[in-house]
Known about the structure:
Blueprint: E1 5-6, E2 9-13, H1 20-33, E3 42-47, H2 52-66, E4 70-76, H3 79-88, E5 93-97, E6 106-112, H4 121-131, E7 148-150, H5 154-163, E8 176-180, H6 189-196, E9 200-204, H7 223-232, E10 236-240, E11 247-250, E12 256-257, H8 259-272, E13 280-284, H9 289-297, E14 301-305, H10 309-319, E15 323-325, E16 331-333, H11 342-356, H12 360-364, E17 372-378, H13 388-401, E18 405-411, E19 417-424, H14 427-445
Parallel strand pairs: 3-4, 3-5, 4-7, 8-9, 8-10, 13-14, 13-15
Antiparallel strand pairs: 1-2, 2-6, 5-6, 10-11, 11-12, 15-16, 17-19, 18-19
Helix pairs in contact: 1-2, 1-4, 5-6, 8-11, 13-14
Amino acid sequence: xxxxxxxxxxxxxxxxxxxxxxxxxxxxxxxxxxxxxxxxxxxxxxxxxxxxxxxxxxxxxxxxxxxxxxxxxxxxxxxxxxxxxxxxxxxxxxxxxxxxxxxxxxxxxxxxxxxxxxxxxxxxxxxxxxxxxxxxxxxxxxxxxxxxxxxxxxxxxxxxxxxxxxxxxxxxxxxxxxxxxxxxxxxxxxxxxxxxxxxxxxxxxxxxxxxxxxxxxxxxxxxxxxxxxxxxxxxxxxxxxxxxxxxxxxxxxxxxxxxxxxxxxxxxxxxxxxxxxxxxxxxxxxxxxxxxxxxxxxxxxxxxxxxxxxxxxxxxxxxxxxxxxxxxxxxxxxxxxxxxxxxxxxxxxxxxxxxxxxxxxxxxxxxxxxxxxxxxxxxxxxxxxxxxxxxxxxxxxxxxxxxxxxxxxxxxxxxxxxxxxxxxxxxxxxxxxxxxxxxxxxxxxx
Length: 446
């Protein structure tokens, strides 16, 4: 068990869990862990638009400079842009200050190695040990302190990078796009990138004020986007989350397209073009069984992992896959990026739409998803899944579903929640077993 790191970095309530003291220690610990050689070390730091980002950013700067690392401050930038710039600027470490799709009260710290990839469990364990240890004797001398400066022009660098992932002569002329940036990190770069590619762009969620990130906008609250797409008769709606590493699509009829359908559409296109590095893709245990059956019909496999884009990426690297992701909209295109990138995934979809001259609904409705029901049960303390009664209820539910369905029960890595997901051909049966498990967890957590 890890004390600080979850499935996606360190995350919690700002100024309660994620305090200046913790951010300072993270900066010092991560800086020490990535000191390799005698060269002048540097770290790039990006953030989303939360008010607490200022506090955490300054504390991280103090931590990194105190161990002799220069800090390059990027300002509000998408998580995948920070990963890309870590490599591009030859930094020893990259940091993203964000709590992704969580409300503004939360914040977090994500770390990237010099290769732009999220850290391994072993490295995170090493940093945790340093965070909780005595670092007083490992700080640099007064002459060795790091410097800090803000870097200009990084938005243009990311936009050019994103555009270069498309064929040279492809543009989005003639497409009316409603873009929802969740009042988050992509509020500047995403609209400009789409406009430069020729799309007619209508924006929502591009007026961050420190408090409104993900509030009734973004990939976890797509109702405003759906309404706007229908109202303007747009060709497509694109919803990013707070740090823009995930995306949800709305078709021209106002219907949601999740990450499973998006992966299916890209996988078919890439298979037809001979661009898949392996005859399959990688997704998590949460992806719909309908996706697996659809891919099988294309002669493609589906490799499943634990929930979390870092685990998807690990399986992709081990198996040589170049496409993977999550139902929630984390899509990893490893030919271009080292982490999920909502904007790049949207670009790939729009490329299929333009080249095929078909509508988004035609391109994205690849399969009929099986009924899938997800219930979140909040708890205060303890480990409800280790309760004997809960375990017995889960086992009985699996027997009821048999081979016609699946159950995935797991503790959230970022919140005190037990997530209970069931799917199968019989919706009523799935709903019944999910409710039984949720009730058992609630009783155990009382």
